[in-house]
């Protein structure tokens, strides 16, 4: 026959059952029935609290598990994000490097193009200068530096066309060095060339900016006086004659004179216009040289 449990032993077993979570044994021991009502109420409260705690603990464990899963997911997401950030940084760095290389290439190419352009501009400038030199040479008399025969005749054609178009006066002068053959005979052709150059320079320096002068041939010079009547041309020609007569050329101080024949354009042909000036030059020579003749011998 089993001995009766003491109420205290029964109480201890009930607490141990609660602590162990064995709720089906709680309140079923017969010794409990003999315990005061307050103890039974206390056990019921204790059981409910234990169940709630256990439920809460279970929820916490479940949430902890979920949190662990979430933490893993977050770690994986962070790892993926870190990887993507690293890849983007690498891509950005590669892009920056590519841009830097591209900028270097652009700068290099720009520099090369600038150098090529500068070289082309230099070549164009040199070609233009060469072309200008060739053009000047093509219209310049090699000995005197004046306009050559071809250019002065073309200039006269243009001057006649302008005079016809605008009905403006136009005069010309044919000039010739007096006794130039004696200069060559007495001083030699080198000094003769010097005389031609110095006389040409004197004429060029003393004409107006609107006048055009050229070497017609040999020791003859042709001057075009645009917008100038015969009286004005005569005054200009006289000044030129005086300036030439004042020259002392070379170390031997050679003195020379010039004669000139003038003509004013009156609508005739270029040939007749030139013939009139040439005839007046002839009259100047025949009348004693070192003088200017206009239109006819009576004006000498």
UniProtKB/TrEMBL annotation:
Residues 74-108 form a coiled coil. The keyword Coiled coil applies. Keywords: Coiled coil. Residues 168-297 form the GGDEF domain. This is GGDEF domain-containing protein. Signal peptide: none annotated. PANTHER family: DIGUANYLATE CYCLASE DGCM-RELATED (PTHR45138:SF9), REGULATORY COMPONENTS OF SENSORY TRANSDUCTION SYSTEM (PTHR45138). GO terms for molecular function: diguanylate cyclase activity. NCBIfam families: GGDEF. SMART domains: GGDEF.
């Amino acid at each position: 026959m089993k001995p009766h449990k003491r109420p205290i032993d029964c109480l201890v077993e009930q607490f141990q059952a609660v602590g162990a979570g064995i709720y089906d044994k709680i309140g079923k021991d017969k010794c409990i029935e003999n315990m005061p009502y307050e103890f039974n109420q206390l056990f019921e409260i204790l059981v409910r609290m234990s169940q709630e705690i256990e439920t809460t603990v279970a929820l916490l464990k479940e949430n902890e598990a979920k949190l662990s899963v979430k933490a893993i997911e977050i770690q994986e997401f962070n790892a993926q994000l870190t990887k993507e950030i690293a890849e983007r940084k690498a891509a950005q760095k590669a892009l920056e490097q590519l841009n830097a290389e591209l900028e270097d290439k652009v700068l290099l190419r720009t520099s090369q193009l600038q150098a090529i352009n500068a070289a082309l501009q230099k070549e164009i400038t040199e070609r233009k200068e060469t072309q200008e030199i060739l053009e000047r040479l093509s219209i310049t008399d090699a000995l005197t530096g004046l306009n050559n025969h071809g250019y002065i005749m073309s200039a006269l054609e243009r001057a006649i066309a302008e005079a016809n178009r605008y009905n403006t006066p136009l005069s010309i002068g044919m000039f010739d060095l007096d006794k130039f053959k004696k200069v060559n005979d007495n001083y030699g052709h080198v000094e003769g060339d010097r005389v031609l150059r110095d006389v040409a320079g004197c004429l060029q320096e003393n004409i107006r900016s609107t006048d055009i002068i050229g070497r017609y041939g040999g020791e003859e010079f042709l001057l075009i006086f645009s917008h100038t009547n015969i009286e004005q041309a005569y005054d200009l020609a006289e000044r030129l004659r005086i300036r030439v007569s004042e020259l002392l050329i070379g170390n031997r101080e050679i003195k020379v004179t010039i004669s000139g024949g003038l003509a004013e354009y009156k609508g005739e042909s270029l040939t007749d216009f030139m013939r009139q000036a040439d005839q007046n030059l002839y009259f100047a020579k025949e009348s004693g040289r070192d003088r200017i003749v206009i239109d006819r011998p009576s004006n000498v």
